[in-house]
């Protein structure tokens, strides 16, 4: 035990805030401290961020990852204040000789904890801390903190070791997953440390895909900031880091780690891993977008359109749409060769091209419409299609024998418009004509795959669905991230959130009956068995609606 423990220099602490004085006295008084005990001491002190402002350093040098000021040096323990501006992130690190301690943040700090064992390093958790939250810090803790928000904030740090008389946090390990080195350093746990601040190097544990991915993303951001002000002393090149981060050689590591956490149905079986993987991929997508010209931000579906056929269009056409199209033709005695068809929300025109090539629909008889310019750009290579809103079509100018709407497009509209779009479909359908299209049931989430692989195996689509309520109506909201190697390097795109209205089947049937006076039929879109009028769902969670307009 340090002989300094029982002696407090009252003059030294008299100018400190009362809450900090309370922490100091409690540390000297405690017989045997641990991370949990220090955490409780800090919580009981009720420190306020305004008390720490004298040690704020929001104007810290750009090459530093955060501001770092000593508040009290007690020999066997230190109290410090860190300052975080948006974009500041520490490296992955431990705390040197520290055996116990605590950290309190006064903003929405991003905090990640890592597991290091058997020459491996993996991410255990990543969370956004609440302002005022306190965490305990032990000798085995390897973590990372950062400011991924939009506001500055401070954090309070206490680190201690009874066997030390000074430099409690010296000889800290900083994990450089880029060089596969552990750097020993005595100062801040900064990314891209200047070479002169590295005391020694040793072999670093091997990271899994998502841990390395996020490390490289933050490292690139740090090097980019340093290069922008001409202060990159790390020996690392932004160009080389960019090339390496999205190198296709990481594909197998990504797929192998992903498949370890999936069941046979393509559902994730480890919710913590799934949350982390999606988080880190979205950060990488944002960085890749900022350093490339891949995406057209004016069109939400720009990147999605380029991958749509591979991960959704072709699989759905092969698995159930082609079958129900043939069923519709046979069941309702439809001769495509003599029909004029409009496809509402035609997307890339893949299904419509199938109608032309395989089902006898004359190309000049088929017209597609979609609100996405990106989708229409692809569709126009296959069919006659235009950007437009189906609600603006005038039946006085043109009507169609067949009105088609595939892949639950009608459910992308808000609940307040569903009846309106069904009524519009009836208006533009000629007397004696038909509407046909597919929808998803309110419980579609039970059959919704979390991962979809393209047939050629070079695209993986990650999908995270959830049920939400809006104005007393049910919706399915799905977050979609696509990873592709088609371009010869990893291309990671965050496709955002896609929200679908989930009306009861009885409500959909009612709306069609009101709009179409010639009868309405519903079938399971996969098995094509009729759905009873009082049914809540169907086996496949996808259903086909056929509605006829009387002559």
Describe the structure.
With 551 residues, the chain is an alpha+beta fold. It has helices at 10-13, 18-29, 35-45, 209-228, 238-245, 251-259, 271-291, 302-331, 350-358, 373-379, 418-427, 505-515; strands spanning 67-73, 77-84, 92-93, 100-105, 110-117, 120-128, 134-138, 142-146, 153-160, 172-176, 181-185, 200-203, 206-207, 341-344, 366-370, 385-387, 400-405, 429-440, 451-453, 459-470, 473-484, 491-501, 520-524, 542-548. The strands form 5 sheets. A 7-stranded mixed beta sheet has the order 16-15-14-17-18-24-23. The chain has a 5-stranded antiparallel beta sheet with strand order 1-2-9-4-7, covered by helices on one side. Strands 3-10-11-12 form a 4-stranded antiparallel beta sheet, with no helix packed on it. It is elongated, with a radius of gyration of 30 Å. The N and C termini lie far apart (96 Å). Residues 295-300 have low confidence and may be disordered.
Q: How large is the radius of gyration?
A: 30 Å
Q: Determine the strand fraction and express it as a percent band.
A: 25-35%
Question: Helical amount among residues, as a percent range?
Answer: 25-40%
Low-confidence stretches: 295-300
Instruction: Quote the average pLDDT.
Output: 94
Derived from helix and strand composition plus strand pairing, the structural class reads alpha+beta
- Report the major sheet: 7 strands, mixed
